Each structure stands twice: as structure tokens, then as C-alpha cells.
Amino acid sequence: MAGKILIADDEKNMLWALKKALRKVGYDIITAENGLEAVNIFLEEGPDLVLLDLKMPKMNGIEVLRKIKKENPDTPVIMITAHGTAESAVEAMKIGALDYISKPFDIEELKVVIRKALKYKNLNDEVKYLKDKLKEKTGYIKYKSSKMEEVLDIVSRVALTNSTVLILGESGTGKELIADAIHDNSNRKDGPLIKINCAALPENLLESELFGYEKGAFTGATKSKPGKFEMAHNGTIFLDEIGEISPSMQVKLLRVIQEKEFERIGSTDTIKVDIRIIAATNRDLKKMVEEGKFREDLYYRLNVIPIYIPPLRERKEDIPILVNHFIEKYCKQMGKTKMSISPRALDKLKNYEWKGNVRELQNVIERCVILSTEDEIKEDMFPEEIRKTSATSLENFILPDEGISLEEVEKSLILQALKKTNYNQTKAAKMLGITRHTLLYRMDKYGIKKTN
User: Fold this and answer.
1) How far apart are CA 174 and CA 311, in angstroms?
2) pTM
3) Domain that residue 438 falls in
4) What InterPro entries does its record include (predicted)?
5) What's the distance, CA 80 to chain centroid?
6) Are residues 258 and 292 in the same domain?
7) 118 and 40 in one domain?
8) Element (H or E) spanning 248, and its range?
9) pLDDT value at position 121?
10) What is the number of domains present in the chain?
């Protein structure tokens, strides 16, 4: 695996030996004899990997590592030293070093470490490229939360495969948009994306819609008609509300997933198709399997790659960006000038539980844009259940009969705030409604480290 490697070490003999050994296996080698030179060469050359001695003149390895990670966090760095201790190794790994190797070392062992590091970098680069492409093509998915970032990370990884995907989540969370994103970023994007809501049709109509039928197959079949599976050939079929299909339909669907073949109603001719199947449900299919309401073999065929979309109440940081998106959308549709939303109104929306998720939020904003005679959305425009929302939802908290440790609750809330703010203490303190000094005192009290 070729690549450009920067070796930074103040020992000339070590530089010469490493340069010679690694060039023999095809690597492009550049060297630096002190920390300052290493930083300058890194900025000029942009190497794929850095071998970095811990103890060097002009700037030590830890400082060089900090500057490298600040400039390009994705560049893998392997620390090499004869002077290192366990503490320095831990510190380097915390800052972002990928690996750590001590002198004297076996050159073959180092080659293995380098190969793994470059493979890791190539995989990271590929995922980053796919995520960037995904963001270009999924501008219709509005989010800010890390939870939705994780969802789209999975989408970027599975889009280019042909694996069956099962999208899970409550009604209104955006399962169809995720299906669109998978198809739009797949190798099948130029083929059809055929959608069907399995809950919208009775069993006999669902079968004819999915498999098609021949002329005369039943009363009213005056001409042959291809089904959704046939129409999705060389593309993707999206089966929404898959948890609603009958046991007999489950058997027929299982065959299509396994064999990619079926017959139209009224025909004995087998039709083979090349399709990707994406299914979605708001039901707990695993529980339905345990209750005997859903076939276990079908469940495992569908659940190859599950993608769970969290409800809006678990990612409330997405609410402001969604609100602005819907305001802009409906103002444009209705020919109105751009509206805004008051801070108090936005707080009401952020504190509401959103049992209908994004779809419910969308409906609320559409109604406000339609009915508003002003250029600002205010809380009195909302439905009563939203207007009555209190600033926090703690009033709904029920103390368990067995009691609870108040200190554990406080520690848990502090950790949640730190994680949500990426360990920004000022933001975490603001989220908890306390001062930063109070937060630091309580972090010390509970033994919570100041960095992630």
C-alpha cells in the first residue's frame, strides 16, 4: 500500500535506517530532524502518515502532535520513542495518536503497524468522501444533532451495497426520507425507486399491486399489469409499514427476498428481478416475532442492516433548523415574505414532546404560516397542547417506589450535558442552569474528568 510518510526523529542513524527500509517496500519518505522542521514539512507536504519521535529538539513530539491534529485530525500519527513512559503514551493517544511503538523495535512489526494505519486512513477517507457526497444529495434532510449524524453515517456506509435495509422508528420521524437518501446515493440511483405503503391496501389488492396480474386473472382484470417488484427492476423498492402485512403475504414476500423471483397473479411464468429492498416500520417486529405475529425467517431476512431513527423528543437540537426550514418552505409555497419565530415560541416547540415527531412539527408550522397575519410566529398561534407546555418536562418525572440516588441523578445529568456539548464546560453549565464554577466543583465532587 503506497503512501507518503513523514519520519521525524533527531537520531540520524534511525532516520537513515527507517528511510531505507520503508523505501524498499514502495513508500515515499520525507524526513525531519527536529519538531519545528517536522511541523513545517507537514504543512508543506501533507503526508499520508507521520512517524513521530517523542523527544526532539526545538519542539517535542507531543507539541508536534497537537499541531498536526489541529491542522488535519484525520492524518494517522504513530509515536516512536525510547524515552516514553506509560503516561506519555496515554497522553499521546488522548491527543489523537493512532498507535505507539517503543525503541528498540522490529522493523517488520513497524511495517505491519504502518500498513494497518494507512488502511485505516483509506477507509476513513472513503467514508468522509461518501458522507460529503451524501450531504450534497440529502439537503432535504435537515438536522443538527449527533444522533441524526450517526444515522446518515450508517446511510453513507450502506448506500453502495445491495443489502436489505430495515428502517425503524416512530411515525413521522422521516423513514421515507432515509429510504430516499439510500437510493439516491446508491449504484441504483439511475434506476427506479418504487414505493408502496403496505398498510394502505387490503391483502388481495396488496398482492396484485406487488406482484402484478395477467388479463382475466380475476374479475375486473381486463388487461395485464406489472407489479411493483417488476417495476423496481434494476432499482429499489421501498416497503413502508411492513409490520402490517398478513401471514400469507409474509410467506410470499420471503420468497421474493430470498430468490428475487415471483409470478404474476394468474400466470405460471416466473419473473426474475434485480432489486434492492428497503423496508420500514413503526412496530416492534422482534416482539411481534415472539408473539407469533411476524415470521422469524422474514424478520431476519429484512433485518440485515437495521437503521433506527430516534424520535424528535430525543434530538431536540434539530427543532430550530427544522422550524426554519418549514417556515421557508411554506412562505415560498404561499407567496409570503420570509417569516421568523419569536424566542418564546421556539422555546415552547423545544419543550413539547412531539408524539407525532417531525410530521407533527411540520403541520404546526404550516398552520402558523397559513393563519398568521404578521411576519413573526408567536406562541399564541400554537395549538393549546403546545401552549400549555411547561419550560421543562420534570413535572412528568415519577419517583420510583424503591427510591433513587439524588447524587447519581445529578452526576448523570452533568455527564449528559458535557456529552451534548462535546465537553464545553461553559455550554454545559448553561444547559444545566448553573455557573461554570459550580459545574467544575460538581465535576470534581463526582470524579468527572474535564475532557472527553
Assistant:
1) 9
2) 0.61
3) 402-445
4) AAA+_ATPase, AAA_lid_NorR, CheY-like_superfamily, Homeodomain-like_sf, HTH_Fis, P-loop_NTPase, Sig_transdc_resp-reg_receiver, Sigma_54_int
5) 34
6) yes
7) yes
8) helix 247-259
9) 86
10) 4
Q: How far is CA 54 from each of CA 35, 51, 90, 399, 409, rounded to the nearest angstrom?
A: 9, 10, 12, 53, 42
Buried b (16+ CB within 10 A) or exposed e, 383-417: eeebeebeeeeeeeeeeeeeeeeeeeeebeebeeb
Q: How far apart are CA 56 and CA 67, in angstroms?
A: 15
Cross-strand partners of 79: 52, 100
Shared-domain flag, residues 335 and 186: no
Domain of 21: which CATH number?
3.40.50.2300
d(CA 259, CA 269): 15
Confidence of residue 138 (pLDDT cuts 50, 70, 90): low
Domain identity same for 150 and 251:
yes
pLDDT of residue 234: 95
Residue 402, CA atoms < 13 Å, CB-side half-sphere: 0
List the Cα angle 114/116/119 in 5-degree steps: 110
Tell me which of 272, 290, 308 is where a domain ends: 308
* 212 lies in some domain: yes
**Which stretches of 30-174 are DSSP H helices?**
35-45, 61-71, 86-95, 107-137, 146-158
Closest C-alpha to 68, from 84, 44, 88, 87: 44
| Cross-strand partners of 340 | 376
Same structural domain, 171 and 226: yes
Residues 171 and 296 in one domain: yes
pLDDT bracket for residue 271 (50, 70, 90): very high
For 69, half-sphere exposure in the C-beta direction (CA atoms, 13 angstrom radius) is: 17
Q: Are residues 96 and 195 in the same domain?
A: no
Q: What percent of the chain has pLDDT over 90?
A: 57
Q: 432: domain CATH number?
A: 1.10.10.60
User: Does residue 185 sit in the same domain as residue 303?
Assistant: yes
Domain assignment present for residue 169? The answer is yes
68: left (phi over 0), alpha (psi -120 to 50) or beta: alpha
Averaged pLDDT of the chain: 88
pLDDT (average), residues 155-182: 94
